[in-house]
Amino acid sequence: MSSKVDIGFDRYLTYSELTDYLRKTAEAYPDLADLESAGKSYEGRDIWALMLTNKKTGCPKKKPALYVDGNIHAGEVTGSMVALYLIDYLVDNYGKDEEVTYLLDTRTFYILPRVNPDGAELYLTTPTQLRSSVRVWPDEEVDDLPGLHRADVDGDGMILQMRVRDDRRGEWKASEKDPRLMIPRRPGERKGPFYRIYPEGYIKDYEGEPIEVQKSRFGLDLNRNFPSNWDTKVPGGGDFAGSEPEARTIIEFIIKHPNIGGIQALHTSGGFYYRNPCQYPEDKMDPQDLKATREIACEGTRISGYPDVKSPNRATLTEWAYEHKGIIAYTTELWNRYARAGIDLIEWQKTTDPEKREAQNAKLLEWNDRELAGKGFKDWTPFEHPQLGPVEIGGWDPKFCAQNPPPFLLKQECHKNALWIMKHAAALPEVHITSLKVEDIDGCVKKVTAVVENFGYLPTCVTNKAKELGACKEDVAELLPGPGVQVLGKARLEAGFLEGYVSGGGRGGPAKSAARFTWMIKVDPEASTKFAVEYKSQRGGTVRKEYPEE
Ligand SMILES: [Zn+2]
Prior knowledge:
Largest sheet: 8 strands, mixed
Bound molecules: zinc ion
Strand order of the largest sheet: 1-2-4-3-11-14-12-13
CATH superfamily of the largest domain: Zn peptidases
Shape: elongated
CATH architecture of the largest domain: 3-Layer(aba) Sandwich
Radius of gyration: 28 Å
Structural class: alpha+beta
Number of strands: 24
Number of helices: 13
Strand content: 25-35%
Mean pLDDT: 97
Distance between the termini: 33 Å
CATH topology of the largest domain: Aminopeptidase
């Protein structure tokens, strides 16, 4: 038997390493895993989807499913690593850990660790920083425009900042608390030295000041390319909703797997869970859907400390998932360096007072010195710039401190968030046929009664939004007669949806999470009473019981 690759989770994998890991894992666990290419990226790389479930307990498509993806934003490579860690954790612990075994026996995971492989590769293998796709957009001529273009000028592998001494017009000065820290020059302040700060880069057609800082050539945002509230004004949204192959691959994958009832999109950074509703107030959202969305998020908060936050964004996967498909979805913003440094993120976001901001930034630098051995921040270093002359280059490591954890802190980020994703999977609906009875009515006519129960927290439609939209088919209970058995009346009964225990406990009393179905059958005198009952729920699973029991 082949074995999977030990990746240690103390570094970020390139595309070929990630592919190798996924292939070997699928080979090593044939009873649990299938690897497929969900589609191709702009540059033609496969967007891998690893399916995980215990195949012996049922067909993957007939089980309730959780969809997990990572790294739609090129630099948010922690998302990929959390997705890989989840895979690793599930296959390693199947048959050993009770919760993992239960989840893989009853549910399916579709895990797409790197949905933007082109962007991630450029990010990981060059100094380039980019939001998302590598397709140059919206202006193909941007590189020819005069002005400053970001580049690694001093060859240290990072694109940082350049400070230029300018006592007349400089907007910044060094902090007295920590000379590395640049703070804004106060209104009317005259005692320098003052500096102007530019992104590190070269200036095309330099003729002296003023210097225009050009936008990145990579203006696309694949997570603003989804068809909910999309319009041409969405920043980075692309030419039309679904115009980009990566977003289209995700949309198609979710549509092709109607058993998906939960979505986890892994991003960085900040340390919180973005959730619905995105574009309207909470009191306009279905109250049960809001309750479920917040209660599941709260399970994550208990593990990671990350709060749930109403998302302000539109045309995202998370918004589309709920607004068009009625699926509970989260944009998990991994990694919070502020918390690591002892700064409350909400406090940080609210701060407008420059002195308070200075104190917070000084605290971040102290953390860098204390816990990162100073490696997260490059001190201002003199450099002879080909156009600007003497400058100093420095600043925070944008990739593996600001946007992603330094490699040695990666594993803990992966672990706690894999556990939270499992909590989301555990909350999915889960149907069972709990009883099947046959009563003699009149000679060869018999009455069949089946009881179906949803053991899950969520209803079989997952949300009331899904019901309202008609986003998933209603459940069906069907009697499948054996030889010599005839169903009197309809064999296929419309079953609506079963509630989950999220609906119970309030003023309405217990949830309506069970249903009883009856059929009349006629059995030929020579035949035996043989049939099966099947309950089909797109999102709650398809279950079947034979009579007599085999
Ligand atoms: Zn993101």
